[in-house]
Design a protein that fits this description.
The protein has one domain: Rossmann fold (3-Layer(aba) Sandwich). It is built from seven helices and five strands. It has helices at 18-32, 52-58, 62-72, 90-100, 111-115, 133-145, 174-190; strands at residues 5-10, 36-39, 76-81, 119-125, 150-158. It has a five-stranded parallel β-sheet, sandwiched between helices. α6 (133-145) links the parallel β4 and β5. α3 crosses α4 (90-100). Bound molecules: flavin mononucleotide. Flavin mononucleotide binds at residues 12, 14, 17-19, 82-86, 126-128, 132. Residues 12, 14, 17-19, 82-86, 126-128, 132 line the site of flavin mononucleotide. Residues 5-162 form the NADPH-dependent FMN reductase-like domain.
């Protein structure tokens, strides 16, 4: 039976990013639970800020097609997002806005066809006490309403994230680690093994 494939998307690409650390921790936890987990670096997609004139002149950039491909090959997504002024990062929203512009062509489905009905879990990390909770709630609405994704109700915001990781990159607090497991378990319940 093939493993479920989890595409883990940190919405920050910053060196030392707390959300990348949380994403790595979650990926390791998922692997231990039988998932095949892969981290996607949104910065590596090299997407320009969305610009309708650029799209008209050059079409959708290759990085958006790479994002679509990675999503199509996954069973489920885990988005790990910081909070910028209560909102998700431009890095994340820009990538998904470009994705939404992909039209069906040459046997390739539209960007929105690749996201429809795909299960997603949400995590967030911030040095602040609320751990990026507000940002996650916007991401939930964005992915559900615009991308028709199945965002599981369970989510986890890691507050004081700058103090949360041990030397091995694990979550020092067992309750925090268990909250990540709860989100992964919710995803696993949505996707039958082997899909
Ligand atoms: C433009 C900007 C706005 C921010 N706004 C918030 C905020 O609303 N709430 C919060 O908890 N942290 C906020 N922060 C702090 C981030 O949570 C912090 O920089 C965090 O480390 C970013 O995530 P990263 O470490 O994964 O890059 C903000 C940071 C930036 C750069």
């Amino acid at each position: 039976m093939s493993a479920r494939r989890l595409l883990v998307i940190p919405a920050s690409a910053r060196t030392g990013s707390l959300n990348v650390q949380l994403a790595r921790h979650a990926a390791r936890t998922a692997e231990a639970a039988g998932w095949q987990a892969q981290l996607l670096d949104l910065r590596s997609l090299a997407l320009p800020v969305y610009d309708g004139d650029l799209e008209a002149a050059e079409g959708v950039p290759a990085g958006a097609l790479a994002l679509q491909q990675a999503i199509a090959e996954s069973t489920a997504l885990l988005v790990v997002t910081p909070e910028y002024n209560g909102f998700p990062t431009p890095l994340f929203v820009n990538a998904f806005d470009w994705l939404s512009r992909i039209q069906a062509a040459d046997g390739r489905p539209a960007g929105l066809a690749s996201t429809a009905d795909k299960p997603v879990g949400l995590l967030s990390a911030s040095p602040g006490p609320l751990g990026g909770l507000r940002s996650m709630n916007f991401v939930r609405q964005y992915l559900q309403m615009a991308f028709a994704m199945l965002v599981v109700p369970q989510q986890f915001a890691l507050g004081r994230a700058n103090e949360a990781f041990d030397a091995e990159g694990g979550l020092a607090d067992a309750r925090a680690a268990q909250s990540v497991v709860r989100v992964l378990d919710a995803l696993a319940r949505l996707v039958p093994a082997g899909r």
